[in-house]
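STRUCTURE:
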């Protein structure tokens, strides 16, 4: 069973209003004049990180990817709850060092959690944030909205390939993009009230763009030659159409995707890459030429 099928079955269950129909990456609970925002992500050894990865990097990434979901709601993080699989003492202690460093860096407090013992290491985090305004949903895009992305995509993909090759410098920006992504918390808080829809890129730009369009009951077009690709990525992976599609479908970018009216002025680092229109489906172009959709738009969890 793939992730989408599983979620469709969950949608048949009793849902809290704050679940937003399971069409978003966070739950939103009204608390008077404030919104309580909750999200949860998991990481599995061999799927989300290499077995020989530095535990401190694993801990940092776990915190960062959860905070990225809060960033997409324009939330201020207030705390996290850790679910941890106990294993080797040295690994566990190193993980906790990285975990503490990440919490201090983002000024987030630990609220609690749970531990288990297992042969396979699975870790999870629940992140909780608060907002003074309505949290933009991935289903909020409107007909005529411009699609924006907050920064370069593909760097984590290149970093992954470098780690896989076994020869790399841990301080390389591409390696850091994979090991220690940067949640766009301040940006999300600054633009949340300006945009109609917002989400972060975790499974791949194209699959997440399609998810936003489907949730909003709209069609969306993406101009591939407008995608922000870093010079580091270009030097490592090239800048032809194949390389751009690789960057657009790989994931782990944790940039923000936004749908905003054409007359709304967003910060300069927000790059326009497409447009929402009436209809359905995703279409691609490259320097004015229509491009067929790749066989896979991004990462989907399967059984």
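SEQUENCE:
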């Amino acid at each position: 069973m793939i992730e989408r099928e599983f979620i469709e079955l969950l949608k048949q269950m009793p849902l809290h209003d704050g679940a937003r129909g399971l069409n978003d990456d966070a739950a939103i609970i009204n608390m008077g004049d404030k919104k309580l925002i909750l999200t949860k992500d998991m990481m599995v050894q061999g799927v989300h990180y290499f077995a020989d990865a530095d535990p401190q990097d694993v801990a940092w990434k776990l915190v960062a990817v959860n905070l990225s979901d809060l960033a997409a709601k324009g939330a201020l993080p207030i705390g996290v709850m850790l679910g941890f699989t106990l294993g080797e003492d040295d690994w566990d202690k190193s993980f906790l060092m990285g975990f503490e460093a990440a919490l201090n860096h983002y000024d987030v407090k630990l609220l609690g959690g749970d531990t288990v013992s297992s042969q396979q290491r699975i870790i999870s985090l629940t992140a909780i944030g608060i907002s003074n305004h309505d949290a933009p949903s991935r289903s909020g895009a409107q007909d005529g909205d411009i699609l924006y992305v907050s920064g370069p995509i593909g760097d984590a993909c290149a970093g992954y390939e470098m780690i896989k090759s076994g020869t790399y410098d841990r301080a390389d920006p591409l390696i850091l993009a994979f090991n220690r992504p940067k949640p766009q918390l301040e940006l999300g808080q600054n633009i949340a009230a300006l945009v109609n829809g917002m989400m972060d890129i975790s499974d791949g730009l194209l699959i997440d763009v399609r998810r936003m369009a489907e949730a909003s009951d709209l069609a969306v077009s993406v101009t591939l030659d407008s995608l922000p690709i870093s010079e580091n990525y270009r030097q490592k992976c090239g800048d032809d159409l194949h390389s751009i599609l690789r960057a657009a479908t790989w994931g782990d970018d944790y940039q923000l995707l936004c749908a905003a009216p054409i007359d709304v002025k967003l910060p300069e680092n927000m790059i326009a890459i497409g447009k929402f229109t009436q209809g359905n489906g995703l279409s691609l172009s490259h320097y004015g030429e229509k491009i067929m959709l790749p066989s896979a738009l991004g990462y989907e969890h399967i059984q």
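REMARK: The radius of gyration is 19 Å.
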